[in-house]
Design goal:
Radius of gyration: 24 Å
Bound molecules: ligand PMT
Number of domains: 2
Oligomer: single chain
Number of helices: 13
Largest sheet: 8 strands, mixed
Distance between the termini: 39 Å
CATH superfamily of the largest domain: CoaB-like
CATH class of the largest domain: Alpha Beta
Low-confidence stretches: 1-13
């Protein structure tokens, strides 16, 4: 399935929009200060409250400080010209729930959307920061912890509560962090919009090279690295096309996802899109070989001899490097297990790349399927940049920072 490009409101410039969800905990009294801080730092704040939250903070205060109407009732907004709860979700560049009660955390983890806040937050596709705040025993409850873990595993960011005296009289963790800390967390999640106007093609995942209808040759790529690049590029404003082999992760909603299976299908799509993009980041683990023959029926044991004849697949990135325009940037990856630098340097030259991301996939925490990677950037100038263990999203941002610099140089010369 191919998904359409998602056009986020900031693509047409303006201040970043922060969606602030407030649920019914005593810490809601701190949210006017949070709104003030966010507005002061140039953000457009849109508040959504649960009914319980209105007992702790008034919509009037929040509307006055944010300068925007405050949403609290699912049905009060239904007469607006668009599907308002989706429009509110779509407008957000970053979303935060502060305080996030055990009830709201539980509903989000279970996919329950039975009021405006949970409906809006089920529809958001931007980064979400949860700020749990509750009684210490509620917070330690294994079900609440399991719900938080589940939300983390699908990409929610969680700001751990502070420990101290709680409004309920208990002492321990459960206190919502100060508004300054939350505001800082929000601006971290808000990516710079420095790639607006850039058209970036990213490849991700493995390819599958069929032997027959039930068997194929493949590799251990999950697609996480390429998907992280696509996701961060889209968050930074680029128009992103993701040509991906079978992924073990969900492709980001705001990129155009073009699924492929074999190296030749990937080759066809990439070559087709190449003239219309400015940058290619080739994170896919493309199979170098394919079986010479693909049987139409399942092979019987006695049909398979002692060897399988293989043919070489086209080297996609090499062709891009050889045929690229001066203003186009092509970044390749190299997955190595030994003599990584020597092999990486050779690939940078032979494939005519602008930069190569080298990962020694024999290291724990690097390469296939991990959420982290350990990379070295090899540049054409001979410069090398080494990094320690980093989340793949952070590696993606570092790559995109270099891409931006290379693009500026390429356009200026
Ligand atoms: O997907 P993950 O689980 O997150 O794992 C990430 C990763 C290890 C797959 C990723 O970080 C990575 O290293 N990707 C490149 C893997 C690879 O195929 O490396 P290579 O050294 O064999 O190829 C070098 C470059 O040529 C790569 O950019 C590759 O996309 C490209 N290539 C290779 C063969 C081919 N026929 N066509 C190509 O374009």
């Amino acid at each position: 399935m191919e998904t359409d490009h998602f056009m986020n409101r900031q693509d047409s410039a303006g201040s970043p929009t922060v969606l602030l969800g407030i649920s019914g905990g005593i810490a809601a009294y701190k949210t006017p200060q949070l709104v003030r801080l966010l507005v002061q730092s140039g953000m457009d704040v849109q508040c959504v409250l649960t009914r319980s939250a209105t007992h702790f903070v008034t919509p009037l205060v929040l509307a006055t400080l944010s300068g925007n109407p405050v949403y609290e009732d699912m049905w009060a907004v239904r007469d607006r010209p668009s599907v308002e709860h989706i429009a509110v979700a779509d407008r957000a560049d970053v979303a935060v729930i502060a305080p996030a009660t055990a009830n709201v955390i539980g509903k989000l983890a279970a996919g329950i959307a039975d009021d405006l806040l949970t409906t809006v937050f089920t529809a958001v596709i931007c980064p979400v920061l949860l700020c749990p705040a509750m009684n210490v025993n509620m917070y330690r409850n294994p079900i609440v912890q399991a719900n938080l873990e589940k939300l983390r595993s699908v990409g929610f960011h969680v700001l751990d509560p502070d420990a101290g005296f709680l409004a309920c009289g208990w002492e321990g963790e459960g206190r919502m962090p100060d508004p300054e800390v939350i505001a800082e967390g929000v601006s971290h999640l808000l990516a710079p919009r420095d790639l607006v106007g850039e058209r970036i093609l990213v490849t991700a995942g493995p390819t599958e090279e069929p032997l027959d209808p039930v068997r194929f040759i493949t590799n251990r790529s999950s697609g996480k690295m390429g998907v992280a690049v696509a996701d961060r590029a889209a968050a930074r404003g680029a128009t992103v096309t993701l040509v991906a082999g079978p992924l073990k992760v969900v492709p980001p909603a705001r990129v155009r996802h073009v699924p492929v299976r074999t190296a030749r299908e990937m080759y066809d799509r990439v070559i087709e899109y190449f003239p219309d993009v400015d940058v290619v980041v080739k994170a896919a683990a493309v199979a170098d070989f394919r079986p010479a023959l693909e049987k139409t029926g399942k092979m019987k044991k006695d049909e398979v001899g002692s060897s399988i004849e293989l043919l070489k697949n086209p080297d996609i990135v090499k062709q891009l490097g050889e045929t690229k325009r001066k203003d186009q940037i092509v970044v390749g990856f190299a997955a190595e297990t030994h003599d990584a630098r020597a092999h990486g340097t050779a690939k940078l030259r032979e494939k005519h790349l602008d930069m190569l991301v080298l990962n020694d996939v024999s290291k724990p925490g690097a390469g296939f399927d991990y959420d982290t990677n350990i990379v070295t950037f090899l540049h054409r100038s001979g410069e090398e940049e080494d990094f320690g263990v980093l989340p793949k999203e952070r590696v993606a941002d570092l790559i995109l920072d270099r891409v931006l610099r290379l693009r500026k140089q390429a356009i200026d010369t």
